[in-house]
Specification:
Layout lengths: L1 H21 L5 H16 L4 H11 L2 H14 L8 H41 L1
């Protein structure tokens, strides 16, 4: 598990370093997530250590999101004049994320069904 956390921290630090070197307007954590995703895609698998460490973090995900929520709560006065745009962005973002999830799940279910049909046909 310690090795998994070390991998996560290293990718976070790599993302921060890239952000500072190239003066990018994106957080180092997001860059690190992109880099680890690309690395895992190239490897084609996730190590047991990384999976164990990730599961530990997922169980406390609410605590990781909390600082952003608190920050938004204290800056709400800055958005009083733009409440309509904020509500529209929240609604549109929610609809798009639900639609994307629906389409992805539909594609994955179809792929799984085709895979099972292909396996069953080979045995007959």
């Amino acid at each position: 598990m310690l090795r998994g956390f070390l991998i996560l921290v290293l990718f976070f630090l790599l993302g921060e370093a890239l952000r500072l070197v190239f003066v990018l307007p994106i957080s180092g954590g997001v860059l690190g997530m992109i880099l680890i995703t690309l690395t895992l895609m190239l490897q084609g698998r996730v190590s047991n250590e990384l999976a164990t460490a990730s599961q530990g973090l997922i169980s406390v995900l609410v605590l990781l999101i909390m600082p952003g929520v608190v920050g938004a709560f204290f800056t709400v006065s800055q958005y009083q004049e733009q409440w309509l745009a904020v509500i529209a962005a929240l609604l549109l973002g929610t609809v798009l994320s639900v639609l994307t999830t629906l389409l992805l799940m539909r594609a994955l279910v179809r792929t799984g069904q085709r895979s099972r049909l292909g396996e069953g046909g080979a045995d007959d």
